[in-house]
Write a structure and sequence with these properties.
Two copies of one chain form a homodimer. Chain A is of the alpha+beta class and 358 residues long. Helices cover 27% and strands 28% of the residues of chain A. The first copy, chain A, has helices at residues 10-18, 28-38, 102-114, 138-145, 195-198, 200-208, 257-267, 289-298, 311-316, 341-355; strands at residues 45-49, 52-56, 64-70, 83-87, 90-94, 121-127, 154-157, 165-167, 171-180, 184-185, 213-216, 219-222, 224-233, 238-239, 242-251, 272-279, 302-304, 321-324, 338-340. The first copy, chain A, has an eight-stranded mixed beta sheet, with helices on both faces. The first copy, chain A, has a four-stranded antiparallel beta sheet with strand order 13-15-9-16. At the A-B interface, α5, α6, β13, β14 and β15 of A face α5, α6, β13, β14 and β15 of B. β13 (224-233) of chain A pairs antiparallel with β13 of chain B, so a sheet runs across the interface.
Chain lengths: 358, 358
Amino acid sequence: MPQLDLTATSVDLTRAVCDIPSVSDDESHLADLIEAAIRPQAHLDVIRDGDVIVARTHTGASQRVVIAGHIDTVPINDNVPTRDIEIDGEPYLWGRGTVDMKSGLAVQLKLAAELVAPRIDVTWMWYDHEEVDAARNGLNRLSQSRPDLFAGDFAILGEASNGQVEGGCNGTLRAVVRTHGVRAHSARAWIGENAIHAAAPVLARLAEYRPRDVAVAGLVYREGLNAVRISGGVAGNVIPDLCEVEVNYRFAPSSSVDQAADHVRNVFAGFEVEITDAAAGARPGLDAPLAREFLAAVGAEPRPKYGWTDVARFSALGIPAVNYGPGDPQLAHHDEERVPIAQIEAVERGLRSWLSPS
Amino acid sequence: MPQLDLTATSVDLTRAVCDIPSVSDDESHLADLIEAAIRPQAHLDVIRDGDVIVARTHTGASQRVVIAGHIDTVPINDNVPTRDIEIDGEPYLWGRGTVDMKSGLAVQLKLAAELVAPRIDVTWMWYDHEEVDAARNGLNRLSQSRPDLFAGDFAILGEASNGQVEGGCNGTLRAVVRTHGVRAHSARAWIGENAIHAAAPVLARLAEYRPRDVAVAGLVYREGLNAVRISGGVAGNVIPDLCEVEVNYRFAPSSSVDQAADHVRNVFAGFEVEITDAAAGARPGLDAPLAREFLAAVGAEPRPKYGWTDVARFSALGIPAVNYGPGDPQLAHHDEERVPIAQIEAVERGLRSWLSPS
């Protein structure tokens, strides 16, 4: 079994962890390597729970930050092993996981080994199954079985944020809007009622909908309401009796799931609406004292996070949380996934400067 | 092998042919029985071609009528053997094929044997594979391989018409109307373009569409334009880049297929429209002298036929054609398919009175 060398540069370490495939459901080998590299660090108290590894400092500091990252990736598509490439003169590391989020993971692993006496106590958390359904998410599982491990004043998730600090995240809700009709032979359509025609106002309301921009604790969250699926029809000669429009509402963290559901029901008033899935957003939490210190140390302008991330799990536990990691989130899951080398180094510097004793 | 007794009543003969399953692709046994019963009739010249049986009188009359019926049914669904039932005091024969169209077939078989010297020469045609795609339709096949057998001045198809005369039929055209967009993550919808939202005007035009009533040779054909299928969507968190609406246009026989296609393209002007399937309608042809005699003899008020039927094949060969058969077409293919006994007898009387020497 190859060893992970935590004294290597964070860029070399990114290359190493990317070249060890760990697609969701197949993370155990990488988890084993991480455990083997972290367990000997005398300043860390290490817990392995399934494929989650928790490593805590106990310096006696008055405050604690949880710094977390997932170790799985979406499926590889001929983009492993990594390659060094250059775009417009700038060096990049190319390949699956470079953005989402093994560069962030590499920075965390390196600093976990290096910072033997951080200014603030740190709970490092590396977890499995982030890229699949929430029921299998390692962080979710552990937050239920071992909430004690999540004790902290602030949390940082290493998800790609272009090296900026992205606060909180929008919530997400899915609903199915249904229209009903009466089947009939299409040669005698007047005997039936066309459920697809009845969905015309549903699409019209979606097309006319103007999403809100909502300011929450100084950040402006851009909402969205979109059809993500439509289906209806029985056969080529039958008037359809059912049409379903699945919509996805991304809502600012100032709204609760119940408020978001009410909003969707209002938009589609007069139609059958079934809420099928929902997850609350996370308030940016940037007014917490540790958050303010962190922002000052890394010198980044905070931005809102639009996509739902696991910061919402910390938020649900009452812990302010932000996203901070190298890589452009729009290249996550992309076949041309790639991270600027400079962003890996910048995030490493940012975290180190904040956590190092002054 | 049981014999078909063509001297039985048309009701008993309906019962007999319904109790011999002949779902499309499995008609040969019934075709064999029909051939065995018809072949000995000295006044008939019989041709077997695949599972099509053609039986012609040669009385030397100056005019000829083609009287046709299909021998297959849609799949049986626990509704064979037939049963005698009563609804509101009226006797019915219940079971698969009683409406579509073995009652009409039975009347034709009985009269083919009985009318040894009809007033007008008759070409009887019983054919296979009407309930499946046109490429396998026995009448369609024979009209291409033996158009000579279709010589005639008038044609009657025994499809269910409630014992009334239904002239011609509407044409039918299917088209797919497509909208395009740009995929994006639904958390950042503003980067993409939603193809489902773009379909809002397509559904609005369908919902607002008022179909025409078109008078053709004295009959009023009711048109219809309907969505029969809609689909779109990639995943629950992706802005969809394609939406397809399949529409079915039923158009009066005064319009050609090209005119119907132009109409559909006009309705959806500004959208991508692909015509996927089309079949011309059939003009009622009730102004033909034989048709007028026939209407007078059977004493029926002619009505328009809305559904597309094989009368259109005769129409395409230049032969005026009508539908005339027992049973309510709305019960065709229905699990509770059933025919009023009185309608079988009425259609038998109607055809006999018209064809018998005066």
